[in-house]
Amino acid sequence: MTTTxxxxxxxxxxIFMGVGAYKKxxxxxxxxxxxxxxxxxxxxxxxxxxxxxxxxxxxxxxxxTAVFTEIEPDPSAHTVERAFAACQAHQAxxxxxxxxxxxxxxxxxxxxxxxxxxxxxDYEGIDKFxxxxxxxxxxxxxxxxxxxxxxxCVITDTEKNLxxxxxxxxxxxxxxxxxxxxxxxTVPAHVAAHSGIDAFVHAFESYLSLQTNLMxxxxxxxxxxxxxxxxxPFVANRQNLNAGLNMLCGSALAGMTFGQxxxxxxxxxxxxxxxxxxxxxxxxxxxxxxxxxxFNLVANPEKFARVAIAMGRPVQQxxxxxxxxxxxxxxxxxxxxxxxxxxxxxxxxTPEGFAELARLCLQANYNRWNPRHTSEADFRALxxxxx
Length: 387
Hints:
single chain; alpha/beta; Rossmann fold; Dehydroquinate synthase-like, alpha domain; 2 domains; six-stranded parallel beta sheet; 13 helices; 9 strands; globular
C-alpha cells in the first residue's frame, strides 16, 4: 500500500471471547428481542454437554427454538432450501449457528433468503443483496473458517459441481460472535488440523493480497502468529483451552480481513479441486499451500520474511530472500507435523482434469488479489507440482 492509496476497514460483529463466553447467549437474545430462534446445529453436537448448556439458557430466556441438523460438509443449495423452509415454518426472527464453517454458512444463507427472497444462487458474487439478513448469532466449533465474522459464505451448486461464494462485507458477518474454546473440545484431530490450516491460509493470503492495507496487515500478522504458534498444541490436545482460544481468535482475525482483501491461488485452486474430487475445504487448502507459497515468494519476499518471523523463525538478521525461504520451509514443516498428505494423489486426485481445473482457476480471476500474476499454464504447473 502506498500513501496515495485510499483504503478502508470494517468489522460489524460484536465478539465475546473466553472460556464460558457461551453464557452471553441470554443477554444477546434479550438485546435482539428474540423469542423464536432458528438453530443451525452441527449434528455431532446434538447430545453434547456444550449444546445442552445453551439449550438450558435459551429455555430460561423463554426462547422457542427450531433445530436443523441436516448439514453436510460443503453444504449444497438443496440443504439451504430445506433449512430455510424450517426457519420460515418456525417464524424465527433470528438465527443461531453452532458448528463449523458449513453450519455457519447455511445459517447465513437462510438469513439472506428470509429477508431478500429468491434462491441463494441469485446472490453469488459481491454485494448482490441489499436487505440485511436475519440477525445471526454464531458460535464456531472449529477454529478455521472465521465465517462468524467474515463477509462471505460458500454454498455448493451440485448441478454445476461448483462452489458459489456469496460476499457482502457489511451484511454477511454475524451480528454477534461467541468465541469459546469449550466449544472445541470434541473436534477430531484431523478436523482441527485441516480447519486450522484453512485459518492460517486466510491470514497468509490476505496478508499477501494486492488489496491489503495497513490495518489488515497488522491484523493478519497477529493472526499468523496466533495460528502458527498454537496449531500444533491445539491439534495435539483440544482440551488445551488456551491454545483453543488463541486459535479461535486467530481464525476470527483472519476472517475479518480476507473478505476485504480477497484471497489468492491457494483458495482458488482448492475451490475447484475440492469440488471436483469432494475434498474438504481445509484439506484442499493444505494440499495446495506449500506449492503456492513457493510460487508466490518472488512477488513479495519482504512480506514472506515477516511471515517467517510470525511463525517463530529467528530470521531478523538474515538477508531478505533467505528469510523469505524460511517462511516456505516453516509452512512445509507445519503441514508435515500436522500429518497433511504430501501429494494430491494421496487423497484420490487424478491428473486428467488438470487442464480444465487450470482454465477454471484463470477464469475465476484471483489475479485481482494474488501477489504474482498467474497464467493458465502456471495453474496447470502448480496442480502438477502438487500432484
